[in-house]
Amino acid sequence: MSFTLRTRFAAHTPRKWRAFATVTDTPAFKIPLIDFSRYLKANSSSEKRKAAEEIVSGFKEVGFIYLDKHGIPDATVKNAFAKSAEFFRLPVDTKDKLKWVDPRSNRGYVAIGRERVTQSSDPDEIAKLRAQAPDFKESMEIGRDWDETWKNQWPEESDAPRFKQTMLDFYQTCHDLHVHVMRAIALGLKLEETFFDKMIDQQCHNLRLLSYPPVRDDILRKEGQARAGAHSDYGTLTLLFQDSVGGLEVQNPHTKEFQPAPPIPGSIVINAGDLLARWSNDVLRSTLHRVVAPPAQKVSNTEAITPQRQSIAFFCNPNFDAVISCLPNCGKEAKYAPVTTEQYIVGRLSATYI
C-alpha cells in the first residue's frame, strides 16, 4: 500500500479520510505504507526477504516510508509526547540552564532561532539564513546516557517528574526498532541480515524532542521562513513521530516540488539519512524535507495564528568510529570518500548551530 504525496486535498473526499487523501501530477512519487509485522513475524525466509525488499524499494525511490505495525505501543508514544510537552512548558530560565553547548556532545536545550537547518555547509551563508529566517522551533537533544565523555542535560526531577526515565526508556525502544529496520535494509540489499549489527551497537543516536510554538502567520510568510528549513538528515535513519497537526513536506527529487507527508495514526515516518546514502553509494536516497505551518487560525481581521505542533525525532547513527564507505554490492566506483560517523555529523552540526 502506498500514499501519493499531494499538494492539495480533493473536496469530494470523505471527511474522516481527507487528511490522508493524495493527488499529484507525478503519480510515481509515493511514500509506501509498510506493514512491518510481515518482516518481524515472517513465517519463512522468502516472506521476510519480500518484506525487506519493499522497505529498500521505498528508500530507493522516495527515501521515506511509513512504518505500520512496528511493535511500539501507542501508549508508549503518547506518554513520551506528554512528558515532552511538560518539559517545554517549563520556564525559559529553567530550560536555558540545560542549553546545548557543543556539537560533539549534541545534548541539551535549543531555544527558538538558534538552529538553522539547511544543506549549506558554509558558516557565513548559514549565519545569513539564520538572521533572515531562523527555524521557528525549540528542541531538547538527548543522547546515550552512559557516555563517559558527554553527559545528558536533565531537568531536576521536581521540575519534570519522570521525564528522565520516560526518555531513557523511549530511547532504548527506538534503538531496538532501529536495529530491526537496519537488518531489513541489509536483507533487502542482499547482505547478511546482521551485516550492520556491530556498527550500530554503541547506540550513538540522538533523541530530539521538538516543540513548534504558535506563531503569527505573517512571520512564517517571510522569504525563506519555515518552522524548519529544507534539509536532509545526517545519520542512517530518522524515526519521526508526529502529532495530528502535521506540516512535514518531502521534496519530489524529480520535480523539486515539496509535497505534504501527512501523519497516519499508529505509523512512524522513517527516512534515510546522508550516511546511509553514502554507505549505499546513493542507491538509497537521502531526501530533502522541511516543516511548514498548517493553515493559520484567524484571531482578528488582520492577524492569524498557526497552531502549536509537537514531534519527536529519533536520529539513528552508526557507531561514531564506524567508517562509512561504499557497501560491497552498491556499485563498482564509490561516489564518496570514506568518512567516520563522528567526522561527518560533528562537521554538519558545527555549521548548523550558533
TrEMBL record:
Database matches in SUPFAM superfamilies: Clavaminate synthase-like
An annotated Gene Ontology molecular function: metal ion binding
Superkingdom, taxonomy of origin: Eukaryota
Keyword Iron among record annotations: yes
PROSITE patterns on file: FE2OG_OXY
Pfam families named among the record's database cross-references: 2OG-FeII_Oxy, DIOX_N
Keywords of this entry: Iron, Metal-binding, Oxidoreductase
Domain Fe2OG dioxygenase: 203-318
Assigned protein family: Belongs to the iron/ascorbate-dependent oxidoreductase family.
Protein name: Fe2OG dioxygenase domain-containing protein
Taxonomic placement: Eukaryota, Fungi, Dikarya, Basidiomycota, Agaricomycotina
